[in-house]
Design goal:
The protein is of the alpha/beta class. It is 37% helix and 17% strand. Helix 3 packs parallel to helix 4, helix 7 runs parallel beside helix 11 and helix 13 (371-379) runs parallel beside helix 19 (513-526).
Length: 537
């Protein structure tokens, strides 16, 4: 019989080999004892890029960032007890934003469950409905078939990527001892399973019917957050040109920046949708929506008030219709739907329709003061990822970012829109792209100060807007409450300079747009990690 420690290691090696064969390239490990066999197997696998992150919550968000940028599942490993529970916020975000993660929690064996053993909690099914699949494995046993573990890894990998990308959880118990008695390394990787997935092409009859609904009629295309695929941007732009309709595109759609046709874009809608007279006179007869539901209230309300033809293109098996206005749903890729509609040669809307939107855009552009948003987008180098925090930051970006042929990859955690883990996610993105620029609020930054530990050695510029607490609440009804300052605005006394020094980041503080521009330019030129505090009233 094989000794338990060696058995644990060989079992772990077989599982990790299966993940590598399936396509895994990155692994994020939080150190622990019970997870030793798997950690050792990962660290000794040269085809995996390993990242060590002490804090499990930060580790899961860091992995989320890597997976967002690479669109590949990332392995995440933690020990037993409360350690994997810290993954939950990132798991929820990954589930709701369609980001693939492969989470492996080590566990105590069955004989130590439900008997008061130390560091033992019920880990099977820990994440409930927030994972695409959950596998509760038994402890490694002598004579196991490695083919089982190879195919388990392939199953988990596929479930994390298709048909709806998201997190998958594997709970793996181990008996002691945890270390192998000898170096029994086996570097063999099994042949990958060749997966043939069905194409999701829209039915010709459905396309023909929808083309008839929109042909020659005034309508709008709405673009929310979408995975960055250039073919989608070109296809949507071509369809808008054929229909001569405006595209109301949010920053996270990827439509605002890049070398695709941007002639039909509207990016200042938060300014002119406040004009009720214009909005009431320009009710479209149809709306075609790509990506997630809009972020800002003005665009949400405008879309929600459209009671005619309302189509959503959503290749993932999720329902995106919070306004309950849906009339057509296309389960296909945006580029395929656009190409099929173009093949029907729909007639353009009356010429004055889009011209009215273009005039409003022109007026709003002349009046706009982009402030710190404009500075950041001007100074951010071409092809650099730009991570935007939630709450007020994403809304300011939506209103003020404008558009340009510069290639900027916008990212955000908009699945659940939480303010936790944003620094860690941004730094995970930098692990793929090689750099990142991030704009966060002061409370968002405070929620993830531990994430700054991941900035060492990275080209990362994190800008924290210090407006004295929860600035988003100034725009909400809570601002009229007598308890507003105490219960919602919550100004903090944190020293971001001390935080930067603790984690060895360069630091600068700016209290004017001019100072901010100089500080940002200097940080980008210097390279390495930097934290810039922009003090705003």
């Amino acid at each position: 019989m094989t000794d338990t420690g060696t058995l644990n290691f060989c079992w772990s090696q077989a599982m990790i080999a299966g993940f590598v064969a399936a396509g895994a390239c990155d692994a994020v490990i939080s150190p622990g004892s019970r997870s030793t066999p798997l950690a050792l197997a990962i660290l000794r696998e040269p085809r995996l890029r390993c990242h060590i992150v002490v804090d499990e919550r930060s580790a899961a968000f860091f992995a989320l960032g890597i997976a967002k940028a690479s669109r590949r599942p990332v392995l995440v490993l933690a020990t037993s007890g409360t350690a994997p529970a810290n993954w939950l916020p990132a798991i929820i975000e990954a589930s709701q934003s369609g980001v693939p993660l492969l989470l492996i929690s080590a566990d105590r064996p069955p004989e130590l469950q439900d008997c008061g053993a130390n560091q033992t909690v019920a880990q099977n099914g820990l994440f409930g409905l927030h994972v695409r699949a959950s596998h509760a494995l038994g402890a490694p046993h002598d004579g196991f078939d490695s083919a089982y573990l190879h195919r388990l890894a392939s199953r988990a990998y596929e479930k994390a990527t298709w048909p709806h990308p998201g997190p998958v959880h594997i709970n793996q118990p181990f008996r002691e001892p945890l270390l192998p008695s000898s170096d029994s390394a086996n570097g063999e990787i099994p042949e990958p399973i060749r997966l043939a997935r069905p194409g999701q092409l829209p039915a010709a009859e459905d396309i023909r019917h929808f083309a008839g609904c929109i042909s020659g009629r005034p309508g709008v295309i709405i673009c929310g957050e979408m995975p960055g695929q250039h073919e989608n941007h070109n296809a949507i732009a071509a369809l808008a040109k054929q229909l001569d309709c405006p595209i109301l595109a949010e920053p996270l759609s990827g439509m605002r920046y890049g070398n695709h046709d941007r002639s039909h874009l509207c990016v200042r809608y938060n300014h002119w949708l406040n004009n009720r007279a214009f909005a009431d006179l320009h009710r479209p007869e149809w709306v075609l929506r790509f990506g997630a539901f809009p972020v800002t209230r003005n665009l949400q309300n405008y879309v929600s008030e459209i009671r005619n033809t309302h189509a959503v293109v959503e290749p993932w098996p999720r329902w995106s219709d919070p306004a309950h206005r849906l009339t057509h749903l296309f389960r296909a890729e945006p580029a395929d739907v656009c190409s099929a509609l173009l093949a029907e040669s729909p007639v353009a809307a009356p010429r004055a329709w889009r011209q009215d939107f273009a005039e409003q855009e022109s007026i709003a552009s002349e009046m706009a003061d982009a402030g710190h948003i404009g500075v950041m987008l001007e100074e951010t180098p071409d092809a650099t990822p730009f991570f935007i925090g939630n709450s007020l930051a994403i809304r300011q970006l939506d209103s003020l970012s404008g558009c340009s042929e510069k290639t900027i990859h916008f990212y955000g955690n908009r699945g659940a829109s939480g303010i936790d883990g944003n620094i860690s996610t941004a730094l995970g993105i930098s692990a793929v792209h090689g750099s990142v620029v991030a704009l966060l609020g002061d409370l968002t930054t405070q929620h993830d100060l531990g994430g700054l530990a991941l900035a060492r050695g990275r080209n990362a510029v994190i800008v924290v807007v210090n407006n004295g607490g929860g600035g988003i609440f100034d725009h909400l009804p809570q601002s009229d409450l007598p308890e507003f300052e105490q219960g919602w605005r919550t100004p903090q006394q944190i020293s971001f300079e001390d935080a930067a020094q603790t984690f060895s980041l360069g630091f600068s503080r700016a209290d004017s747009i001019q100072d901010f521009s100089r500080a940002l330019r200097a940080a980008l030129a210097a390279g390495g990690p930097h934290l810039i505090e922009l003090q705003m009233p």
